[in-house]
Amino acid sequence: MHKKTNKIRQDFLTFFKEKNHVILPSSSLIPYNDSTLLFTNAGMNQFKEIFLGQKNTHHLRVATVQRCLRTGGKHNDLDNVGYTSKHHTFFEMLGNFSFGDYFKKEAIEYAWELLTSEKWFNIPKKKLWISVYEQDYESYEIWKNIIHINPEKIIKIGDKEGIKYNSDNFWKMGDTGPCGPSTEIFYDYGNENENTQSSFIENKNNRFVEIWNIVFISFNRISKNKIISLPKISVDTGMGLERIAAVLQNVSSNYDIDIFQVLIKHISTFSTTKCSNHISLKIIADHIRSAVYMIADDVLPSNEHRGYVLRRIIRRALRHGQKIGIKEHFFYKLVSTVINTMHADFHILQNKKETIQSILKKEETQFSATLKKGLKILDYEIKNTKNDTLSGKTIFYLYDTFGFPVDLTNDICREKNIKIDYQGYKILKEKQKKRSFENNQFCKNYNNDIVINDTCLFKGYKEHKTKSLVKNIAAKNKFVQEISNNDLSIIFLNITPFYSESGGQISDIGKLYNKNACFIVENTKKYGNTIGHIGRLIFGKIKIYDRLYSQIDREHRNDIQLNHSSTHLLHATLREIFGSNVYQKGSLVTNKYLRFDFSYSNSITIAQIQNIENIVNAKIRDNIPIEIKELSLEEAKKKKAMCLFDNAYSSIVRVVFIKDFSIELCGGTHTKRTGDIGFFKIISRSSVSSGIKRIEAITGQTAINFLHKKENDIHDISTLLNCDIDYIKEKITKLINTTKHLETKITTLQHQENISQIKNMMKRVIDIKGVKFLSKIFYNYEHKSMRIMLDQLKKLLKVTIVILINIINHRFTIIVGVTKNLINDINAKKIIDKFMEKTLGKGGGKKDIAEGGGKNTKKIPEILNDIEIWIGDQLKNSC
């Protein structure tokens, strides 16, 4: 019983193909149209809408090998990676699914046959144990009477803390979504002579390892305390490829299987550690796989959202590299080994190899410099911790200043048996977040807590006005029967022409009305599978079951469409100019402008911006028809449509064609022809984060108005310069040269003035206890010149204290210099502090030079006299 990992993967798919399952590709690590998930964390994610009954499928039986990432939320294995033998951030999930076809009996029989048949995995039956949900009597009977498992080896798992459905054997995808009872199959790594239920429950030394989880999707979790039955029951199974590979390769740790051992041996060549089982080797091996696949799915390192997860995984790996003596940049060099071990995805990864290596190398180079500084500070703080707990302030400082992810700090502290004040860190981070967003206009509360299980038919692609029925109304976070005031409310209809905010496109606005009432729609958002019209009643009242006209603001919609179609042209143009490695990383389409973020590491020149504009405007002048077709996913792939094809499982997709120049999957609204756009103008370019660029642009009349303003500005400038528009550049160049000449002349004169001032001041030097003391009050003098004179006086006088003051418009600035041979007896900082006490000003600095300023100028001569006496006392006491 020894199978290579790649053979196990293929045997699984072959088995289910023989059982009439359609083999579908893995979806992306980026969940499609699902805000509840950061990353794909289970094989069933791509089928969520099918399980919920929101989408139909032609395939009732499906099998996949799904790429998964578990680094947060309900499924977070990051802290366990390397410290246990079975946990990973990235792993492959083998799964078979039934959508209203077979159910418990067949699912259990298939699993048992694959695992135990001599033709397939041939695992000894005596090595397998079963768990079931305590109230799932049907599954228990199948295992006992059909599969003939000894009842002693079938463990019933009940609810925790008496809360219904809160059980390890009642599976849920997240806080909401599909769920149902599950039955799990465990492999026994221990002594077969100690087969007791108590040994299974205690599970000492991880003797029993779960290898397959079979979920019977029967319910939809609406909220923490509410679940409802699904219209169609389904089966969702999951078996970790790495875990089953460990069983079939007769090893107890996933890190000992073939594909991990190749990686670990490669990492060891960079390391000084002689321990082939070192935790850091395992962590690096796990994290390089995650990083490679995340970047392959177009995630780039950043300080937020998915990019932050990638960045912390990379940085955690780099720190462990340092821990095992790796001195050079090594992480990006592991990419080839990952690609060569992942046979199923070889071509996908190989095509992006150079991009992945480049991004990892750049991230490694950037972090290496700060890693040493951060570790030095962390080591110092750990040595000075109180109560064996690192403060939240230190954790936040390391995160905010050095980019240390909190789990990296936690890792280091755990190794030294130090706890972390995570709550303190969270408070500081939330304060920072609040400061960042308190002025953000998009942070309005639109009752996002509302949960509604309903549907709404969108007709806005073809209609701008519909007759609609009010199905639900929400106000102040609860459902109501009617509204009669101007408070912010949400109206849910059966039919609507309003496009809800989605895919970067802002929502429609407009009105809902009949002869008795009018409701102004300010925003439109999706709530589950329905659409909420958010706004305020301006007269009358609206109640449930009222019939209304739903009418969008057509001018607002038209402006959005011009910008959305332009976004497609821009995307295609960027790929034409910068190459096919350019991918969309975010977009915003409004009625006023468009914003497009994309992956690109180099700087963008003004010539390239003009080239982009030229190409887009040429396509606009061509007046190309914009065609929208509904195609099967396979047809869309053949057309080479731009999309994350693996993001979703859908039989029909919406494809936007602008001839063969731009072909994209898109759910947004578009104009009919490119000529409708009129004109395209880029107004800004910037860098959002490492490897991510942003372009903002305007179109149509807005772009023309923008050019008119620029033209008016140029005309005003030419008037101010008293020259013709054609000669503005020459006139400005001449003025700049004249200014530079005058500045040089002023500098020369100032230098001469400084020399004269120094000569005069040298005559006013007095001696205090063997120290040369000099003070001088200037009026309307340049501060920079005072600094220069101070330095020169210190050099000339050798052992001296110099105080220079400048008064301008009843305010003063002061600069104090003390030669370094005096700073142990008296220093500039003390003199400034003494001066500020008497003037109520503010100041500070170092021992040899300090500065300050304030408003109280009337008594400065008197204060200088007092300071002179005080200096004498200080020098006397030091003698």
Summarize this entry quickly.
This protein is α+β, with helices and mostly antiparallel strands and 879 residues long. 38% of the residues lie in helices and 26% in strands. The longest helix is centred in the last third of the chain and has 35 residues, at 728-762.
List the helices and strands and how they pair.
Layout lengths: L4 H14 L3 E2 L24 H4 L9 E9 L1 E2 L2 E2 L13 E10 L4 H13 L11 E6 L3 H10 L7 E4 L12 E3 L4 E12 L8 H6 L5 E16 L2 E15 H8 L9 H11 L10 H18 L8 H19 L11 H7 L4 H5 L2 H31 L5 E2 L1 H11 L3 H10 L3 E2 L1 H16 L19 E2 L6 E11 L2 E3 L1 E2 L5 E5 L1 E2 L13 E5 L2 E11 L2 E10 L2 E2 L3 E6 L1 H25 L5 E6 L4 E6 L6 H16 L4 E7 H6 L13 E7 L3 E4 L14 E10 L2 E8 H22 L6 H35 L3 E3 L2 E9 L3 H15 L2 E9 L2 E8 L9 H12 L2 E4 L3 E6 L5 H19 L1
Parallel strand pairs: 1-2, 6-7, 12-13, 14-19, 33-34
Antiparallel strand pairs: 2-5, 3-4, 5-11, 6-9, 8-9, 9-10, 10-11, 15-16, 15-18, 15-24, 17-23, 18-22, 20-21, 20-24, 21-22, 25-26, 26-31, 27-28, 28-29, 30-31, 32-33, 34-35, 35-37, 36-37
Helix pairs in contact: 7-8, 8-9, 8-12, 9-12, 13-15, 16-17, 20-21, 22-23
EC number: 6.1.1.7
Enzyme class: ligase
Subunit structure: Homotetramer.
| CATH architectural name of the largest domain | 2-Layer Sandwich
What kind of sheet is the major sheet? 9 strands, mixed
Give the C-alpha Rg. Answer: 35 Å
Instruction: Please identify which CATH superfamily of the largest domain we are dealing with.
Output: Bira Bifunctional Protein, Domain 2
Strand content: 25-35%
Shape call: globular
How widely separated are the two ends?
90 Å
What is the CATH C level class of the largest domain, in words? Alpha Beta
Into which percent range does the helicity of residues fall? 25-40%
Average pLDDT rating:
88
User: How many strand units?
Assistant: 37
Count up the helices.
23
Uncertain segments are: 437-447, 645-649
Structural category is alpha+beta
Count of the domains = 5
**Named CATH topology of the largest domain:** BirA Bifunctional Protein, domain 2
